[in-house]
Design brief:
two-stranded antiparallel ribbon; 8% strand
């Protein structure tokens, strides 16, 4: 078996016509070369988008459970999710659903009970 050198040095001369990312083709393989600063920006954008998606998912899950006060439930959920996130690298939609269900079980007064709501409606009629 042949030993392959894993270090590769590429020198790119910048010109005003070239911009990042650089596309490099070696044999049949294509590669993309980014500036370190561009790569870090891309990582940050991905992180922020993931965080925004998780908050939107959290909002949706809370609203589906009919909270009495959305802000109260949202605050409790964010606190509990921080605890989950300290144990896991990335939150998933399943973590969010579990936290909202746990809140509904442990803090039922934060949510509207549909049966009681309709019972009160019939009594008042």
């Amino acid at each position: 078996m042949e030993k392959i050198d894993k270090d590769l040095t590429i020198t790119i001369k910048r010109s005003s016509l070239q911009s990042t990312p650089y596309n490099i083709k070696i044999g049949d393989d294509s590669y993309v070369l980014l500036l370190d600063s561009e790569y870090k920006k891309m990582q940050e954008i991905i992180r922020l988008n993931h965080e925004a998606l998780m908050f939107k998912s959290l909002e949706k899950e809370i609203l589906q459970e009919m909270p009495r006060d959305f802000d109260d439930v949202f605050t409790v959920a964010k606190t509990l999710l921080k605890g989950v996130q300290s144990k896991k690298k990335n939150l998933t939609i399943y973590d969010i659903k579990k936290v909202v269900k746990d809140i509904k079980i442990n803090y039922p007064n934060l949510f509207i009970n549909i049966d009681e709501y309709f019972k009160d409606m019939n009594i008042n009629s």
